[in-house]
Request: fold
Amino acid sequence: MNLISCEKLEKSMVELQFSIDAETFKAAVNNAFKREGKKYAIPGFRKGKAPRSLIEKMYGADVFTYDAINELFPAAYEAAVKEAGIEPVGRPEVSVDAASETEGVTLTVKVAVMPEVKVGNYNGLTVEKTVHTVTDEAVDAELKRVQERNARELTREGAAENGDIADIDFEGFVDGVAFEGGKADNYTLEIGSGAFIPGFEDQLVGLAAGQEGEVKVTFPEQYAENLAGKDAVFKVKVHTVREPELPELDDEFAKDVSEFDTLEEYKADLRKNLAESRKTEAERSFKSEIMNQALDNMTAEVPESMIAEKTNEFLDNYADSMGLRGRVSREELIKGMGMGEEEFNSMMRPGALRQVQADLLLDAVVKAEGLEATEEEKADFYKKL
Reply:
């Protein structure tokens, strides 16, 4: 391999030009013929017995050229990268400038490289750290949430009201035609929860068990493409109406929902947990703001390949969290989010860029300060941001 040139381009891209000598290339072409020649059928010859000259005459003079280049490229590219002193971070884009057994091969490669990072000021940054005290009102609000989670549901007569739980059948129609996914039987819905299309739950108020009615709504513009912005009518039947009954806030309640014997002990534990949670959140907010300031002081031309790789990492993490890794394709994952490829990449790009910048900043600071940090330690640091 002979490195001809190494030129820096915009956005942390580099263009390498290098050559492979004629003798090495000629041997690789001959190896490609020995390996691949048996695949070609030539009239008058048994398969695999035709001479190379006839195969090249029938299928083209360069029929074995690219097989030879593919064989030689990895080692030649690695040597060129080492001699040029660059650190590629993406797949190379390769073009063949010239190839002959008398002159050898000349290749041009464009590849993204690890960007130059100017960390700027990261010492002496100041951020106001605020830890909110836990008020009696906050403890009471948390206690109220626990009380509501442990409410009993009592079937009652009369019209449904906001806050009630109704078991309903429904079927939706657009222009008089039922649409896919618009039907369910014995569906449990908390009226006023906002779980359904805007306006749907409001129109259930006033219906009693055994009654039927029609609910008219307009699907939001951001809804599924086939329904976005369309008017729909749902035929609804109410089977039961239930109201939540809150348990009394007393010592028995504390025993039922916790390890404590008294309500006062339970409230003290809630206060302690809220204080720890707010302290953790304040610490996270503090670190995040410090990181944001440091990132604002940093400059680096991040190549698109690094952003794309981080976007793919986000998608892989999502697939893992849903137990879908290896079971569905990338296209199916993105479609399941209600998006197309372009929309997904556009939405994920800012976060991916920021994460790549954070990776680069931490690596640069670790190097500048002579520190050592494993990938696990860096991942743990990110989790705390």
